[in-house]
Amino acid sequence: MxxxxxxxxxxxxxxxxxxxxxxxxxxxxxxxxxxxxxxxxTAHALVHGHLDxxxxxxxxxxxxxxxxxGSDPALLARAAKLGEQYGYYEINLNVGCPSDRVQxxxxxxxxxxxxxxxxxxxxxMREAVSIPVTVKCRIGIDELEDYGFFEWFVLAxxxxxxxxFVVHARNAILQGLTPKENREIPPLxxxxxxxxKREHPELTVILNGGIKTVSQVRExxxxxxxVMIGRQVYHEPYLLAELDAHFLGPGFxxxxxxxxxxxxxxxxxxxxxxxxxxxxxxxHIQGLFAGLPNARAWRRYLTEHAIxxxxxxxxxxxxxxxxxxxx
Length: 327
Prior knowledge:
This protein is 45% helix and 15% strand. The chain has helices at 21-30, 43-48, 51-55, 73-86, 100-104, 115-128, 147-158, 179-182, 191-199, 214-220, 231-235, 238-247, 257-273, 278-282, 295-306, 314-319, 321-326, and strands spanning 10-12, 35-42, 64-69, 91-95, 133-141, 164-172, 204-208, 226-229.
């Protein structure tokens, strides 16, 4: 596969239990140019699991990157190759997740203390594929939270030929905090990745963590090569359309929310014919009307009607009546 130059100015973070193929299709309806990421898939699960279930996606989702978890170079190389064969545009290694389950498998944020292992993994994956191989990390772990530690980790991995780092600008607390608390309690320190980019301009540095608004993206994008937004886009997906229109070039007119519902309904119909479940698809769209009148009633309508026997894409189309009446 020929390596592509990816536009990294705006990306949606890999999020466990969120950014599955249905979520990514919805997000692509809203933004034609942002870079989307899968949920993290462990290399072990990928090498030994059901490939279509773990890797299957619609070409419409592109550009889309695959995030892997693991610390075994050979397994990661095999998993990366599978990702390339399935058509993903990038392989990203998770070196930022602080959950106990991830730590027990010796991957995620705990690997920041072992950059030589990360480097070995990156070398193995880079040798296995021709697409970009990147890292997503934190700025530190536990008491190792000074800039010196962060720079030491990044430069050690850079020697393996990696030049793209997605940085969640929080320390990771490996013991005593849940993954959710690790997204909220450690303070955001944007100055740390900002200093890295300033002192090492040859690196591509993507800022992640706590970015929720157009004004924040406007503030930080000039200082980095891109920004990555997580749960705010999931809970308020129309924000992604607004960000695309603001920052990814002229000429894009965001679709209306009603147009997105109609187009997603077409997708839902196709996926139902392939055996996918309606509630799992409709849960991703529930934030589309966030902040608007009738949004709560609309979410309730989707939840209640998605579980009715024989329910299909007409649930989405019929739901729009409450907004037409409100108008």
